[in-house]
Amino acid sequence: MRLVSLAALSAAILVATPALAAPTTIAPLAFTERTLPNGLRVFAMPDTSGTTVSVQVWYNVGGRDDPRGRSGFAHLFEHLMFKSTRNMPAETMDRLTDDIGGNNNASTDDDFTEYHESAPANHLQSLIWAEAERMGSLVIDQPTFVAERDVVKEELRGDAARPYDSLFRLNLPAASYTVSSYARSPIGSIADLDSATLDDVRAFHAQYYRPDNAVLVVSGNFNPADLNKWVDQYFGPIAKPDRPIPRNFVAEPPRTAARRFTLHAPNTPLPAVVLSWQLPPASDPDHAVLNVIDGILSGGESARLYQSLVYRDQLAAETGISTDLRKGTGMFSAYAIVAGGKTPETVEAAMRREIAQLRDAPVSAQELTRVKNQIVTSALKERETAEGRASSLASSVILENDPHAADTRIAQIQAVTAADVQRVARKLFADDRAVTIDYLPGAPGAQADAIPIAPTVATAPLVIPRDVPVVVAAPADQRVQPPAPGAPVTPTLPTLRERRLSNGMRLVVIERHALPIVTAYLVAGGGSSTDPAARGGVAELTADLLTKGTATRSATDIVRDVETLGGAIGGDAVRDGMFLSLTVKSDQLAPAMDVFADVAMNPSFKLEELERERTKALDGLKVAYSEPGQLASMVSSRAVYGLGPYGKPADGTPASIRAIQRDDIVKGYRGYWRPDATTLVMAGDITIDQAAQVADRLFGRWAKPNMPPLAPPAAGTPSPPQTYVVDMPQSPQAAVVVARVTIARKDPRYYPMVVAEQALGGGFSARLNQEVRVKRGLAYGAGSSFQARRAPGPLAASTQTKNSTVPEVIDLIREQMTRMGTDLVPTAELDARKASLIGGFGRQVETTDGLAGYAAGLVLQDVPLDEISRYSAAITAVTPEQVRQVSQELINPSPASVIVVGDAAQFLPKLQAKGVKADVIPASKLNLDSPTLR
Q1: How would DSSP label each residue in 332-360?
Q2: Cα distance between residue 683 and residue 517, in whole Å
Q3: pLDDT of 190 strictly over 90
Q4: How far apart are CA 562 and CA 594, in angstroms?
Q5: Alpha-carbon distances, residue 229 vs 124, 129, 224, 705 (angstroms)
Q6: In this structure, is the dihedral angle defined by the CA atoms of residues 870, 872, 875 and 878, taken in order, positive or negative?
Q7: 26 confidence band (pLDDT: 50, 70, 90)
């Protein structure tokens, strides 16, 4: 879960290189702390500037506490805690969050399990009540245990279907620990889950889910006195057990010798190499230095690993660092996915050279400034939301037993010196103490190699306490109901203001001055729908190459200059357009925008840069083609749209990527990147006058071409419905997609369709997930997506399931799509889905980059900007009859194609027995350049 993750012209550089910025001060997290008599620690973080609250409960129990032979128990409880309590029927937490515009989720770590909810502030009391309910009154019965165990099995199969998952999730910890129970994966194993009993599960809950083993953090808009009253009322009566909390905290001994492993695994498109060293606990005084080392090696495209392995020497398709600090001994892991045609030995040698350089030579002042500014910007972004602030504090409490740790570390990071970096690197990263894993493609049909967990790993048997309480659900007429919500807090929507430059460039500004951050988007037309025939991927490559050099800046100059300011810059393409984006602290906006404008107006598209990006794209496709979910999505576009513009492979294909020439890139850029066809969106700590001054200074002299802007391509004709099976033998799961064409963004049915799709598959509480996961345990999740574009966009319902249940899942998806158009959605269900949409919209525009991104999307689809102020009203106005009507027209599965990517031998006979005539294509023969897929 934690891993996987991304000099010429010296005179000009001396001018362009940013000055080393002074340390930035970040306001500390404001909180109060108290401890209840039962041991529960409570942290309150009131902030009346927003309209939401975040409630988080972190338990001091994680994967390393799993009993012997019962790996995965902590993770299993992550699932069980969303089921019944004495007074809450199963899935009530979703009713109390999703259905009123909030959200909820949870995660299991080696050291903790955390549960978090965000909701409108007036619903805080019900969330406190609900969290106390599931701490003190969880119902654990045989049907619930079996059902959630099946869901976890599907989660495990889905993980295993992804390339490299087993390397990071299973093999790396097994290789790294010989004594500590960190050697086991928190998600566990199917064998251990199958051997568990109901009594085991109840005992585990009784041992660890107790107030003296938990931390409650509440952040957002609330009255502290009200919070104290509700915490005392609902959590206060939960008794502290009179038995100690079992702990399996056996320390991992220092590693005294190197270890090396070579593994072969099927579905490994490119070899991988991992180097790993031990780390001290998270509470170690050198925690801040390790954060800086992480940034030096992998903090953006100017970092050392990317620059040397990916960019300069082109040895790796991807590389990165995981600084996995824990309560006990952690892991510092450097990984690389080996580029096509390169060898693991060469990549390993390059990785070791970069680690050695940290030990052998001091880092430059500029590198330290870059990393420190990046960390400050990241901290500012995390603190934009109530949820982010609460998570930062809770993590500090659980891992370091210090609520001030996150704030203290920011100050410590500012003080880190080159000597500190060298000292820590010498102390920790000796070559003779590294674990090395070479992860290589396995032979077709062969089983994957695995590193066994050492027999010396210390685990403890589960001891079942006496008198474990067995909670029974109260009869419906005797349940205590959730508290009623208080008076709502009215949100204040930002105002979008516009100006236009003399050359036709449009400027859109959204002011938000709570934090010193600005995000800018430059929005252009084009996109993958305009890629030339047999040249799929041109738009993606064009967007990627924007930041890979100008007339006066190299690719390295660009990322170094922006990242030294603590910013991030990048290009991207979607179906209908391209973007250039920048996020930076507002005090560094001017120099960052200088680079941004140069990149937008003067890209050089050098041939050597094109070749670099081509190689990366080809390696990326190898990985994507090995993952059933990604491949099914790619196939669905071609299956639904055929030869139409939206049928073109957005990321290209191996053949189309190889065929692209520099002239294709230059032509694509010149057609769409021009002042009278682009819009600059700026959001955050900036005024309209300041933004206009910046825009005019940087873009005012951008010349408008004489020819008119290019028109978008015609929509094309959808393909007739068909069932496609892409055969991927040995895949542990199959991906299923049911997709069809719907409407354009400007269609008057847009908002009814948004609400209808949300009811169908827009979240955990939607119908698809309820039928496929909650009721039947056939998948870890199921859902849908609706993408309204300039031309009619797609609706796709999708999931991943074990191969044998593919026919059942297809029937369930089609049945729910049909039902949307035959039966009226009950008002209560529809109101809940509307609230979910409105809440999701509020969370998106809560952050600066989310706000800028939403506005950029409106610009791209040529939608009036006042849509941001009418979104909630438009959603609220949709009626059940409108939903049924639009579902009959646009969700009805009759014109939909079905795409399945998986092990066909396990499900094809069942499909054929149902009369399904499937076009079966071996994955190795798939041709996404062709509308027939052959």
Answers
A1: EEEEEEEPTT--HHHHHHHHHHHHHHHHH
A2: 8
A3: no
A4: 10
A5: 12, 11, 9, 66
A6: negative
A7: confident
Q: What's the length of the chain?
A: 934
Tens of pLDDT, residue by residue over 46-62, are 999 889 999 999 999 99
Task: Specify whether the CB–CB gap between 629 and 723 falls below 8 A.
Answer: no
C-alpha 924/C-alpha 914 separation (Å) is 27
H/E segment holding residue 798: strand 794-801
Sorted by sequence, the CB contacts under 8 Å of residue 324 that are 6+ apart come out as 2, 3, 279, 330, 331, 332, 333
Task: Give the separation between CA 665 and CA 541, rounded to whole angstroms.
Answer: 7
Among residues 503, 446, 539, the alpha carbon closest in space to that of 860 is found at 539
CA distance 227 to 31: 13
Backbone φ and ψ of 678, nearest 5°: -125, 155
* pLDDT on residue 495: 85
Contacts of 500 (CB under 8 A, 6+ apart): 506, 507
The pairing of strands 41-46 and 214-220 is: parallel
- Residue 430 CB burial class (10 angstroms; 0-12, 13-18, ≥19): middle
* Burial classification of residue 532, based on how many CB atoms lie within 10 Å of its CB (0-12 exposed, 13-18 middle, 19 or more buried): middle
User: How far is C-alpha 496 from the chain's CA centre?
Assistant: 28
Per-residue model confidence (pLDDT) at position 2: 28
Query: What is the number of other CB atoms lying within 10 angstroms of the CB of residue 844?
Result: 13
pLDDT at 24: 60
The first and second tokens of residue 504, run together, are 């036709």
Q: Give the whole-angstrom CA distance, residue 299 versus residue 566.
A: 10
Which distant-in-sequence residues (6+ apart) come within 8 Å of 495 by Cβ? 510, 511
Q: 334, 321 in Cβ contact below 8 A?
A: yes
Taking the C-alpha atoms of residue 475 and residue 137, their distance in angstroms, rounded to an integer, is 14
Coil, helix or strand at residue 640: helix
Question: Taking 50 as the threshold, does the pLDDT of residue 19 lie above it?
Answer: no
What single letter denotes the amino acid at residue 429? F
How far apart CA 167 and CA 142 sit, in angstroms, is: 33
By the 8 A CB rule, do 670 and 541 touch? no
3-state helix, strand, coil in the chain (%, to 5): 45, 20, 40
Mean pLDDT estimate for the chain? 94
Sign of the CA dihedral with 232 first, then 238, 242, and 245 last: negative
SS3 assignment for 98-167: HHHCCEEEEEECCCCEEEEEEEEHHHHHHHHHHHHHHHHCECCCHHHHHHHHHHHHHHHHHHHCCCCHHH
| Nearest one of 229, 219, 224 to 55, comparing CA atoms | 219
Burial 91-108 (b: 16+ CB within 10 A, else e): bbbbbbbbbbbbbbebeb
Place of tokens 């009623």: 484
Indicate the pairing of strand 679-684 with strand 506-511.
parallel
